[in-house]
Design goal:
The protein has about 325 residues and is α+β, with helices and mostly antiparallel strands. Helix content is about 35%, strand content about 25%. The chain has helices at about 5-15, 60-70, 75-95, 145-185, 265-270, 300-305, 310-315; strands spanning about 20, 25-30, 35, 40-45, 45-50, 95-100, 105-110, 115-120, 125, 135, 195-200, 225-230, 255-260, 280-285, 285-295, 320. The strands form 5 sheets. Strands 1-2-5-9 form a 4-stranded antiparallel beta sheet, with helices on one face. The protein has a 4-stranded antiparallel beta sheet with strand order 14-15-13-16. α2 (about 60-70) packs across α3. The model is unreliable at about 190-245 (pLDDT under 50).
Length: about 325
């Protein structure tokens, strides 16, 4: 298996959808529990992946995986990916299939030249349903005798009630599991408490009329007690966040935190930056990369990213030479 195929196999287990330039997008499909009339079985809910050749917008997930694992530049990683995918297509045309390890295999249809994917890792949608097995539906035959017919009918009704109760329990369990998952992922926002501060404010000197003589040299302004309230009910909106400072391109190596298709997306990324770190835009190879640190060497760049907090705030960043 070539290098790119190994990365595809690894990423298929950890990503919902995966874009592979030249092949298409592996899309995750969730299928609810259902009855298969052909096999006469009740099947549990499953999740599996299919390959959609029409989805070709690259999100750079595969390229970044090659860059990190193989210690490559972006140009070298894209070149390696193109060569490996060409090799995969060539083997598909010759043999009709290409194995992706435990994930499944790619299939080639010589009639319409389409490439499809057979997922061998079909599994239940959640660990909570892993115990569910396929249930066979038995056909109950009726006898001519009235007594036996009545017994079979009662047995049939009992099985239907059992199946109905089992389906009801499974649905209830699934509902509670779903609710637990939703509530566990809700971000609880802390309510801003009302705060009050008390301080002694020294007023400015009093303004006297021009015709009034100041004869009391021992005059001292009285201190006034000021109660300052700052609560959400005051109707005073928070000040707008300041635009982050921009970095200047003065070095050769840059710590990249995002790679975007155009400048407007790069500007939006910088505007949405909540870390408070100064960011800059580096245009190269038709991409607009946002960087948070720079240096004359890779080591100096990495140290700069650690010192200013960029390494902690953008853990998925990488170093690029310009």
């Amino acid at each position: 298996m070539n290098t790119t195929a190994l990365h595809i196999t690894h990423l298929l287990f950890g990503h919902g959808n995966l874009v592979v330039p030249g092949l298409g997008t592996f899309v995750t499909v969730y299928k609810a529990a259902h009855y298969d009339a052909t096999r006469q079985k009740f099947l549990p809910p499953v999740v599996y992946k299919i390959l959609d050749p029409s989805l070709t917008i690259d999100d750079d997930t595969l390229v970044r995986s090659l860059m990190r694992r193989e210690n490559m530049t972006e140009f070298a990683a894209r070149r390696r990916m193109e060569i490996d995918i060409s090799e995969i297509k060539r083997e598909l045309e010759q043999t009709g299939c290409y194995s992706l390890g435990n994930c499944g295999e790619l299939l080639f249809n010589s009639n319409n030249s389409n490439i499809s994917y057979s997922d061998s890792a079909r599994r239940t949608t959640s660990d909570a349903f892993s115990w569910l097995q396929e249930l066979s539906a038995e056909t109950i035959s009726l006898t001519e005798e009235k007594t036996e017919s009545t017994v079979e009918e009662q047995r049939n009704n009992s099985m239907l009630r059992t199946a109905s109760r089992a389906a009801s329990y499974a649905a209830t369990f699934a509902l509670f599991t779903l609710l637990a998952f939703i509530f566990s992922n809700i971000r609880h926002t802390e309510s801003r408490s009302q705060m009050a501060s008390i301080g002694i404010e020294q007023p400015s000197l009093p303004v006297l009329a021009l015709t009034e003589n100041i004869t009391d040299r021992n005059y001292a302004p009285e201190s006034s007690l000021v109660l300052i309230l700052n609560t959400p009910a005051d109707g005073i909106s928070d000040p707008e966040p300041k635009t982050p400072k921009r970095l200047q391109q003065t070095h050769r190596y840059f710590y990249i935190v995002a790679s975007l298709a155009n400048r407007s997306e790069a500007e939006k990324f910088i505007s949405s930056n909540k870390s408070g770190l100064p960011l800059g835009i580096l245009e190269s190879d038709g991409r607009y990369r946002v960087y948070a640190a720079s240096g004359e060497t890779t080591g100096a760049t990495l140290n700069a990213a650690k010192e200013n907090g960029a390494k902690d705030n953008f853990g998925g960043g990488w170093i690029c030479r310009h």
